[in-house]
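Form 12-C: Joint structure prediction
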Amino acid sequence: MTGASTLAWMTLLLPLASAAVITLGTLKNHRLSANLSIGAILGAFVCSLLLFLSASSGESNLTWIAIGDFNATIGVKLDRLSALMLLVVTGVGTLIHWYSQGYMEGDRSYARYFASLSLFSFSMLGIVLATNLMQMFIFWELVGVSSYLLIGFWHERPAAADACKKAFITNRLGDFGFLIGIIMVWAAAGSLNFGLLAKAMQEQPELLGASAGIIGLLLFCGAMGKSAQFPLHVWLPDAMEGPTPVSALIHAATMVAAGVFMLCRIFFLLSPDALSIIAWIGGGTALMAAVIALQQDDIKRILAYSTLSQLGYMVMAVGLHAPGAAMFHLTTHAFFKAMLFLGAGSVIHALHHEQNIWKMGGLKEKMPLTYRTFLYGTLALCGVPPLSGFFSKDGILAAAADSHHGNPVLFGIGILAAVLTTLYMGRLVLVAFHGAHRSEQASHAKESPSVMTVPLWILLVPTLVAGFFPVEHMINQTLGLHHASGHAAAPLAMAFSVLALMIGGSVAWSYYAGAGTDPLTQRFSGLSTLLCNRLWLDEIFSGMIAITHEAVSKLAGWMDQKILRGAIMGLLQHGVDILGRGLRLVQSGSIQTYAFLFVVGVALVIYIVLGGKH
Amino acid sequence: MEALLFYIFAALTLICALLVVANPFTRNPVTSAMFLVCTIISMAGLFVLLHAFFLAAVQVMVYAGAVIVLFLFVIMLLDIPSVEQRSFNLLGVGMGGLGLLAVGGMVIQTMLRSGIGQGKTPQLEGATKELGVTLFTEYVLAFEIMGVLLLVGMMGVILLSKKDLK
Amino acid sequence: MIGLEHYLIVSALLFSLGMMGVILRRNLIVIYMGLELMLNAANLALVAFSRFNNSMDGQVMVFFVITVAAAEVAVGLALIVALYRKRQSTEVEDLTSLKL
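Section 2 - Result
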């Protein structure tokens, strides 16, 4: 156990060391910073690989704070779930680090970029290796900070500054619910350690009592924020203001998956009521994002909404009592989505930062390597057999169609979202890569340097083959779910998903092959405006915030004026006035007043001396 | 019988005293003086009930007969134009009543609490002869000083009433 | 039975009435009458005590009080007359020179 735990600690601490060294020492030396960061994540990857292959499990804890009954520990927890996630995070992370060398070449804050990337890796690995909810929450917040630093990397641009603020604040809202949920769990169960909680829940299923549903939903709030479920999804599209490798790493493969990972970790704490609500939110997000993606013109935005949609699928799977399917999809999605983002980055780099797909076109000939990998990524995303995406998406749809825990409406939503996925991804590929060159830059594009295309090739491998690994089964076993849902309905789901694929593909081909402008915009202009403006959710939210802000400030102003100024100061003012007037009588010159006061005094003296004693 | 008489005289005293100070009908000082006479005479009655016969007589002769007559002389002398009837001032009356109750109540309560009257029976027979004996034996110095006081008072009055002092 | 308390209550009330007269009336003469009432109240209390405590001293004191009151009224009224000649008024509001 000690060998494995040492490896686990190293995995966690190498990126931290790299971040610290870069920040404190080598900010001026670009080459060295990059090498340090890549070396650290590569080392972490090697350790993760060893841990995965050795199939070790257990945990190792260090006590950080001990106050009476309360013990806060930092530790590393090894089981199949965390080992798998480690591989995904460090694997994709290493490739992204490598890719960033080429993409960020020439940037002034090169070293700061790598320091932030290393910090992010450390935080993410902390979440994966967390042994208890408190540690997970601390690293959760750290991931939020790293994301803030990375999204707002080009902070001189106002759009980027706003986006990183938005991301952090939206995350914070989710984290608020998460924290309350954690506190309620601690109050009910007395411990935050995952292993202890799982055991306690097994022995005593009613441990969380009547508020089990609420606790589940509050914990889900954290996932809502991190994994961008409705209504906290608004930060993800704006987060595309960050550099493309950042989008690939954080907003495709790892950070947004943290929410799903967390849900799988605490799966035993979620009551059936909470799970059904989670499933609906996931399904709703999947459909909504797919619909909005249909009318987006920025290549990164389309991919962002696609990520949102796939995250919705994953969350829906958790809600349908199939966390294994969720983790499977998470793994495959990490690979092909990262590849898609890196491909998009390659395109953007080649076209000198042009991101509108209607200004691209005909890149098939100019950038063949990028095109091929992008195409395979798209096919995986759409669920074409035998690519990995097919198997993982099928797992989720099968869970929805399952007779025990499934829900036919959610199955229908899943299929519909699959149709739309094929439609918008087909639109993207056909418009950006096929057809004629739509702009000056498109005609001058050339293939990106190998430092950028090699990671694409490397990611292609798992995209193609990851579907054949029994990930789902492994995860379900780890989580103790021996009767995983979905096996019976798998053939039905497969049939429907292939059908969806064909429908979406044919519609996309008929509309977009060789199109000069978007035909959907012309035919459904009203609906198109709605979708183009992302259902105006951002505007609604900012309006709500403005109204609340006004109301609260009006209330505060009223209180200040009427209560503080009016009552308290009035009290002082009039009180002193009355006191003064009263005291003035002592020197009024009127004999009668003097006589009166005299008598009052004498009477009081008499009363006190003679009368009060008895 | 004695109790009835006490209550009658006590009521008379208090009512007339009230009318001296707070007459709701007129502010004329002469009316106040008249009611003061009534008060004095009722008090003489109370003195008689207390078997202080000489003092009752002295009260009527000196107070009602001399002091109030002096008051009336001065009122007539000053020829004060009668003040017009002021409207019923609730605040003033209220405050007055309150003050009366407060002070009177305090004194009464003190007195009752101290249990002064416990187990006392009226004993003294205020015969004039005994009063005279006590006055001229134990208090003869004070008696003489009274005489001097009256002399000084007379001189002071004469001095003060002169129109201009030469 | 009429006990000491009864007389003392009458005396206290009379005293309060007199005091109210002193404080609330504006005419100097009436204020003076209030003073007389107060003195009378004291007299009543003294006589009552003398009777119930079986001592002649109370009555002797009342004798003296009546004498002094008479002298005081004489002097006081003379003062009022002199004041009236000076200020042409017997309202107490006009006599406010004792202000500091």
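Section 3 - Comments
DSSP finds 26 helices and two strands in chain A. The longest strand of chain A covers residues 58-67.
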